[in-house]
Amino acid sequence: MFFRVRHQKMVHVYLLVLVILGVLVVLGAVIAYHALLREQNFQIQAAVAKLASGESNYQHFDSSASQYHQNSVVILEEQKPLVIYNRVPKTGSTSFVNVAYDLHSRNAFRVLHVNVTGNSHLLSIYDQFRFIENTTRWIRPAFYHGHFAYVDFERYGYKKPYYVQLLRKPLERLVSYYYFLRYGDDYRPHLVRKKHMDSSTTFDECVERGGSDCQANLLWLQIPFLCGQSADCWIPGSEWALQQAKRNVLEKYTLVGVTEQMGEYLQMLELVIPGGMFRNASEHFKHSSKSHLRKTAKKYPVSRKTIQKFHDSTIWQMENELYAFVAREFAFSYAKQFPNVSSGLSGTMKKHLKISDLPPPSFRYEKIYPKLSQQQKKKKIIAHV
Fold first, then answer.
1. CA 53 → CA 40, 48, 134, 291, distances in Å?
2. Catalytic residue among 145, 190, 284, 384
3. Minimal CA–CA distance to 121: which of 14, 6, 199, 233?
4. What pLDDT, in 10s, does the model give residues 49-88?
5. Residue 86: is it exposed, middle or buried by C-beta count within 10 angstroms (0-12/13-18/19+)?
6. Of 54, 96, 296, 366, which has the fewest beta carbons less than 10 angstroms from its beta carbon?
7. Is 145 a catalytic residue?
8. 34 included as an active-site residue
9. Is 306 exposed, middle or buried (0-12, 13-18, 19+ CB in 10 A)?
10. pTM
11. 326 and 260 Cβ atoms separated by less than 8 Å
12. From 147, 190, 311, 384, active-site residue
């Protein structure tokens, strides 16, 4: 009798445990189901928001919004332009970047500043990889700018972006930077610069005394910026760095121009960067009050003696060789694009770029096989109509 009662109690306990386990399983399933519903609802809301803001994988560019393309096109996300401007300090880069900031809403692209820690111009290997992966995967079209040396996307197995760059006459750039540290500029006129206490010393006097911030080695900046992240790029006077910078100008950069011809440079960007990113950039630059920002507050003319001293230095000769190389290449490209437009380093530019200013294509397609069928020809005619 005792064992029978005990057995019945144990059965009741087992049943109670099973009931509790069943309730827990059902409760867990309900919680998981609701979590799944929330996740799906979040994904739907994100997709709707993405479509509403025009950030879907496909974006339709209306022909009426493009000055140079007659037909509407559908551009895949990975085909939208990724433009990188690794700006050299004191080359008019603020004026150029502000054109992009002014046009980003109208021309539907994003602008992002890359702030490198400690004002360093170099990135570690892993930071290079992270930068490449970020810019490649994030939403396009986009314009990235910052003071850092050229980063080679193809080295890490990625497609190269549209690299753009502006150079300035080497000694002019250094003199501008020297006085900028002492007197500031019209962009932030009330900011006290780190060399403000030394503002009474002119560049000529600094050179005469052998000062540390007017040495010829400080000219060595445009070459390494275009050369890249390699150690030898940053050795002043490296012939290899100069030749590598020239190769990158021709093979890695989409367009390199000179500060003195920024108007013409923007005209060319309107043509070579797809998606209408720089549409009307040259006209905006010409009339905008922000076109000539960061003008150094005070500068004294440099004496012939100082100029000659720098011209005798190997560093200036190499930096000037790169500048002259870029100026020739840009002038050649501009003259080829606009054969009826006279332009030199004087900075003259057309009033505004129009389709009528562009010469007809210098090539055509012929001997096309397989031949179009009659039905395809009719479709082609209808499409043109």
1. 20, 9, 21, 30
2. 145
3. 233
4. 444 444 444 343 333 334 444 444 455 666 799 999 999 9
5. buried
6. 366
7. yes
8. no
9. buried
10. 0.74
11. no
12. 147
